[in-house]
Give the backbone structure.
Amino acid sequence: MSCDALAYCDMLQVLEACDVQSPFSFKATEMLKKLGSEEVSLEQLLQISTDAPLMPNILKVMSEFDVDPSLQEIWMSTCSPLNAQLVVPSDDLRTQIKLNIAHIVEQHYPHLVNRVADSIMRLLLDCAQDDPKIVTLFHFVGVFRGRSFVPFVENLGHDG
């Protein structure tokens, strides 16, 4: 087992041992959720790295992860001009997110497109990433896992 895997297991045990009645129970629960998301992303990355050739077909990878077509379009429109696949600059991704959510948000809240795009970026950059200037495909997919994209964006607009 690698050092990272051992550290992850240790963190998970400490968080699970937190008393439910402690003042930190909410924070511990949130951290457990984030760790769970990171674990799924790491498991998927490990599966790809062992099963795939040197350069995976990014559309095939996203379809295997059952990624919403809207999210696939955002990712592909960000990475294609950059000749990237698994990692993109966060500024470029924000631009594509804004372009792709504008038609959803503007129907009811035309002045909130930037705010909704910023909310999505905060969720993406809130992940346990070392460099906030980049976003990996796995973090991108992880943020939206289990959520329908259009209703999620509409809810962010309502919360705006």
User: Anything to note?
Assistant: The chain has a mean pLDDT of 80. The helical segments are 3-17, 25-51, 58-64, 69-82, 90-105, 113-125, 137-144, 149-159.
